[in-house]
Amino acid sequence: MKKISLIIILVLTFVACKNEAKTEVNLEENREKSYDANDGFVTMKGEFVYYADAAVFQTANEIYGVVIDENMHQLETQVKAFKKEATDMVPVTVRVRKFKKAEDEEGWPNRVEIKEILKVEAPDPNKEDVIKLGN
Fold first, then answer.
1. How far apart are CA 30 and CA 103, in angstroms?
2. How far, CA to CA in Å, does 119 sit from each of 55, 91, 111?
3. d(CA 99, CA 109)
4. Strands 63-66 and 110-120: what pairing?
5. How far apart are alpha carbons 74 and 94 in whole angstroms?
6. Around Cβ 16, how many Cβ atoms within 10 Å?
7. pLDDT of residue 47
8. What is this structure's pTM?
């Protein structure tokens, strides 16, 4: 009888100890949820470049002109560490205010004003989307 009850206890213990699937926590998604959704700002991930007197932010689906202000210059300072050439685009995650450009202005039809810098990443060295002109 003791053997049977011992076997039953072991079987119940073994069945009760399931392997739960571990889920990865997406930090970017959690970061987006932590902000007030009614503040009018949007968290965006894309590539940033500032060259001469123009700044561009490119996502997977859209290209935006960037308002040149103090926050844009702070982002440029952080991005410089990852650039090999002046025209290199660097992956960033930022909180922005999106809007349409004025009709009398030149540039991209959509604009963003950087409100907060969340993350600056090193570019992928294996990415081969750059065309270089040679002599």
1. 37
2. 17, 8, 20
3. 9
4. parallel
5. 12
6. 7
7. 94
8. 0.66
Q: How far apart are the first and last CA of the chain?
A: 90
**Phi and psi, residue 111, nearest 5°:** -125, 155
Residue 131 has pLDDT above 60, yes or no: no
Q: Report CA-CA distances (Å) from 122 to 58, 72, 93, 125.
A: 16, 18, 12, 8
User: What secondary structure does DSSP assign to 3-66, as a single string?
Assistant: HHHHHHHHHHHHHHS--PPP----HHHHHHHTS-TTSS-EEEEEEEEEETTEEEEE-SS-EEEE
Q: What is the pLDDT of residues 23-49, one digit of tens each?
A: 555 555 555 554 555 677 889 999 999
CATH 2.40.50 fits 40-123, yes or no: yes
CB 60 within 8 A of CB 46: yes
Give the CA angle between residues 30, 31, 37 to the nearest 5°.
100
Residues for the chain: how many in total? 135
Domain residue extents for the chain? 40-123
